[in-house]
């Protein structure tokens, strides 16, 4: 729920007016009432800052495919939250077995598992640099740099 500053501030001021009259009736001085007001105002501001920088995630099972119950923030960043850095899953050794060109095979065997996984995502699976970046949790420019290094390494060895 969003924090509506105007509404919440009016509620706060009304509550403080009521508290001030209670404090004065209890024998507090005006200076002490002002100090209490400043303290409560600081708490009010901290609560506002907290609400502005945090969003409530409803309790529930997020494994369901029912998008209606998911938080908008969770929906927006769902792809970011599901990254994969396990490169062993990305590259299949059988792909290397199917290559007939011996020099190309030697070039590919010189690559690390991470590089092979990245190359498969880009060249075989047809993912864009942006899609690879989202999947691996890295920046697009990092993907571009890595693919360029892989291509240069293969050209050298091929």
Folded structure, characterized:
Helix 1 (5-25) runs antiparallel to helix 2 (30-53) and helix 7 (102-109) crosses helix 10 (140-157). This protein has 10 helices and no strands. The radius of gyration is 29 Å and the shape is rod-shaped. It folds into 2 domains: 5-78, no CATH class; 85-157, Arc Repressor Mutant, subunit A. It is mostly helical and 158 residues long. Residues 105-153 form the RNA polymerase sigma factor 70 region 4 type domain.
Q: What's the short story on this structure?
A:
The protein contains ten helices and no strands.
Which characteristics define this entry?
158 residues; mainly alpha; Arc Repressor Mutant, subunit A; 2 domains; rod-shaped; RNA_pol_sigma_r3/r4-like; ECF-type sigma factor; RNA_pol_sigma70_r4_t2; WH-like_DNA-bd_sf
| Anisotropy-based shape | rod-shaped
Helix content: 55-70%
Radius of gyration from CA coordinates: 29 Å
> For the report, how would you describe the main beta sheet?
none
The sequence of SSEs as H and E is HHHHHHHHHH
Strand content: under 5%
Mean pLDDT across all residues, rounded? Answer: 79
Number of H- or I-type helical stretches: 10
List segments where confidence is low: pLDDT < 50 over at least 5 consecutive residues: none
Total discrete domains: 2
Q: What is the terminal-to-terminal distance? A: 58 Å
Global structural class: mainly alpha
For the secondary structure, the number of strands is: 0
Domain RNA polymerase sigma factor 70 region 4 type: 105-153
Protein name: ECF-type sigma factor
Pfam families: Sigma70_r4_2
Organism: Ohessyouella blattaphilus
């Amino acid at each position: 729920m969003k924090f509506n500053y105007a509404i919440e501030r009016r509620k706060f001021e009304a509550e403080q007016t009521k508290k001030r009259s209670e404090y004065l009736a209890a024998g507090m001085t005006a200076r002490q009432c002002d100090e209490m007001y400043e303290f409560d105002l600081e708490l009010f501001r901290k609560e506002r800052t907290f609400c502005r920088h945090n969003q409530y995630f409803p309790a529930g099972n997020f494994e369901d495919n029912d998008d209606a119950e998911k938080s908008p923030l969770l929906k927006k960043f769902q792809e970011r939250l599901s990254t994969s850095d396990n490169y062993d899953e990305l590259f299949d050794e059988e792909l290397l077995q199917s290559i007939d060109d011996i020099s190309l095979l030697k070039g590919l065997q010189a690559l690390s598992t991470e590089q092979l996984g990245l190359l498969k995502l880009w060249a075989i699976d047809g993912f864009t640099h942006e899609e690879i970046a989202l999947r691996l949790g890295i920046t697009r420019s990092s993907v571009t740099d890595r693919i360029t290094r892989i291509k240069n390494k293969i050209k050298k060895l091929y």
